[in-house]
Design goal:
- The complex is a heterodimer of chains A (114) and B (115).
- Chain A is mainly beta and 114 residues long.
- Chain A is built from no helices and 11 strands.
- In chain A, the strands form 2 sheets. In chain A, strands 2, 4, 5, 6, 9, 10 and 11 form a 7-stranded mixed β-sheet that branches. In chain A, strands 1-3-8-7 form a 4-stranded antiparallel β-sheet, with no helix packed on it.
- In chain A, a hairpin with a 2-residue loop joins strand 5 and strand 6.
- Chain A starts with a strand and ends with a strand.
- By secondary structure, chain B is mostly beta strands.
- Chain B contains no helices and 12 strands.
- In chain B, the strands form 3 sheets. In chain B, strands 2, 5, 6, 10, 11 and 12 form a 6-stranded mixed β-sheet that branches.
- Chain B is globular.
- Chain B starts with a strand and ends with a strand.
- The chains are: A mainly beta (114), B mainly beta (115).
- Chains A and B meet through strand 4, strand 5, strand 9 and strand 10 of A and strand 6, strand 10 and strand 11 of B.
């Protein structure tokens, strides 16, 4: 597609349930990032993929959070046993790689845990 | 670790006023610096960037200069428009060290421009 696509755009889930958030990066972009945007914490880095591997997972807040990327393309962020503090907008970005290149962001998934 | 500090908002200006949004950073190595903008209802998009000391990034009338001596990257615009109303994020990337390209963001500054 023309841009980074994320789905769903909105997700309401009950506390304790698992959720999966999907990201389709720009075709050909080897680098993919997940960020979280919340009122109290601003924009936080979660995880970085280069191809299908994740050399930097340092931002994942707990072991309830995991992510994978397949075929060097689509990525899924999974949150297990959701808690209310997980409520936030989850943003995905992709780039052609390296710290000097522009990252293109998706519209995000707004997750609300009730 | 690396960090970015932005001036707190919201910033409210009249149309055609001069804008400055302050941004300072702490980093090891030689990061690249960015300003991203989030217009209402839209995703984050790159506004401008600078990759080395004394570089000036510019776009849509906005400018920012990479100042290594003051570790700053302040955003300026000479004459703001109502359409500039948005949230502005200063960010750095780890280019030159681990080079993952991950971004460290400031807290964001909301700008509201009134006609």
């Amino acid at each position: 597609g023309a841009g980074v696509s994320q789905s769903p755009s909105n997700k309401v889930t009950e506390k304790g349930k698992d959720v999966e958030l999907r990201c389709d990066p720009i075709s050909g972009h080897t680098a993919l990032y997940w960020y979280r945007q919340s009122l109290g914490q601003g924009l936080e880095f979660l995880i970085y993929f280069q191809g299908n591997s994740a050399p930097d997972k340092s931002g994942l807040p707990s072991d309830r959070f995991s992510a994978e990327r397949t075929g060097g393309s689509v990525s899924t962020l999974t949150i297990q046993r959701t808690q209310q503090e997980d409520s936030a907008v989850y943003l995905c970005a992709s780039s052609s790689g390296g710290g000097n290149t522009e990252a293109f962001f998706g519209q995000g998934t707004r997750l609300t845990v009730v | 670790g690396n960090s970015v500090t932005q001036m707190e908002g919201p910033v409210t200006l009249s149309e055609e006023a001069f804008l400055t949004i302050n941004c300072t950073y702490t980093a090891t190595g030689y990061p690249s610096l960015f300003w991203y903008v989030q217009y209402p209802g839209e995703g984050l998009q790159l506004l401008l960037k600078a990759t080395k000391a004394d570089d000036k990034g510019s776009n849509k009338g906005f400018e920012a200069t990479y100042r290594k001596e003051t570790t700053s990257f302040h955003l300026e615009k000479g004459s703001v428009q109502v359409s500039d109303s948005a949230v502005y994020f200063c960010a750095l990337s780890d280019y030159g060290s681990s080079n993952t390209g991950k971004l460290i963001f400031g807290q964001g500054t909301t700008l509201q421009v009134k006609p």
